[in-house]
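Hi V.,

You were right to ask for the full record rather than a summary. Here it is.
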Amino acid sequence: MVAATFRFYEELNDFLPPQWRKVAFTVPCARGATTKHMIEALGVPHTEVELILVNGESVGFERMLADGDRVAVYPRFETLDVTPLLRLRDSPLREPRFIADAHLGGLARLLRMAGFDTLYDNGYHDAELVRIAQREGRIVLSRDIELLKRRDVDHGCYVHATDPDAQLREIVERLDLARLAKPFTRCLRCNAPLRPIEKAEVLDRLPENVRAHQVRFSYCDGCDRVYWQGSHWQAMRRRLDAGFAAGSGIESE
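Predicted structure:
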């Protein structure tokens, strides 16, 4: 048995018991234990970790721990350039696409509203969700810590908030999504991209008041749904504006 001293930074402390938060603490480690094994044994999903320093040296998840090692564990950096240090993921996702677990249906809808490709089905089993994420290069959004600890989850994000609007603000800020938003370009029901459509093509499907007052329409080829900018659109717009308020804002389409 060996012992190593750990110190977790910023929001990673939320996963730890109170006595270990924002302090250095020493714990026993099994011989042959890696940094990844111990970080997750202490309660922190590997998907939340961006940088590990062991005795001041940048290391990967596979680094085996030795007696007396001092381990500093950091989350995603907002302003510090860590380019010269070892990145823990081979292929950062330039255009974030998501898959949300069964507890995050409200967040999935809001992300689609903001234009992000977001899969959601409350019937997904964990193994199926992870397979889809791997195959399609999606970020797993979850409030299930054990799901994010799975070895085959590369890109993932633990959602701390419980209210969908607060969840949107959290994800926008953590993943710097404001500049990437394209609101009202995806179907809220099936996630397919929307396309503009002429009013004449959908005229017989519109309520009388919509025919009289609306001129711009979008159409979903995936589920044959028509969208327009009515009062419901205004309410959705206000929700998005609030969700992106912490970022640089979003542009009207």
